[in-house]
Amino acid sequence: MKIIPVLNIQQFEHNIPWSDFYCNDLKSHLNKNKNFFYKPHSHDFFLCVLFTKGTGSHEIDFSTYPVNAGSVFFLKPGQTHYWSFNSPPEGYIFFHTQDFYELHFSKSKLEQFPFYFSHKNTPALNLDSKTLKTLELNFKDINTEYYNKLPYKKQKIASLINTTYIDLSRLYSLQTSTKSTTSSTYIKTLRKLESTIESYFKTEKSAAFYANALHITPKHLNRITKTTLNKTTTNLITDRVILEAKRLITHSNNTLQNISLILGYQDYAYFSRVFKQKTRLTPLEFKKSYQL
Hints:
Elements: E1 6-7, E2 21-25, H1 26-32, E3 42-43, E4 46-60, E5 63-67, E6 71-75, E7 81-96, H2 98-104, H3 114-117, E8 124-126, H4 129-147, H5 153-175, H6 184-200, H7 207-213, H8 218-229, H9 233-251, H10 256-262, H11 268-279, H12 283-291
Parallel strand pairs: 1-3
Antiparallel strand pairs: 2-7, 4-5, 4-6, 4-7, 6-8
């Protein structure tokens, strides 16, 4: 049984009961939701947050990132995270569904932006003080528009978010080593692959299955994953299995044997070997180390 909460947008803002968008200044948001942010949780929406003050750490799917003035984070639906602060944070945060963005920009996809392109791309960005001041205005404008009662409100917010994502993507591309590809076909295929893996990783572990589902050869699929992410198809499948194993080990009441079965491994010893090969720890060792 899973015990990690999955939050939705309706839980956050009662004065503006939108089901597809939410925004707030970070100080108010964290104060209102202090029962959530320091415990592991996930969302069913996209999240973007900018820190203008404060220090601490942000754990996202078992990777820890420092929080400082100028930190920006991007989360996709389903990712598990929580915050820990050493000094009071300030900034801005907004959530939205995929439809909120794509209904306003019907010819664009959120995955066009590098931070949403793949789970393999880092969810963090750091702004210098000059850039922070500029980008802070974008976030402030989004927040102001959200709480104003003006016509064409959603259209304005969607436009502001698109501009903000473009500005952040330019900075992200300069700061990260994300490998770009000029092939739009490769990009579309990778998106379909990650979506298909998300649907079947518990039962299907072979690259051939996913290649067949995408109507291409395993060799060509491997070429696409190597070109775009520098990983084999099998690596991507196994990485998704291990991430889910970590989530279940740390955030559920399932036994390790049950987790092995949930993830499609009838033989716990084999599951343990796969887990250790990827993490250098057995499932039990990982559970104990995370608790510590």
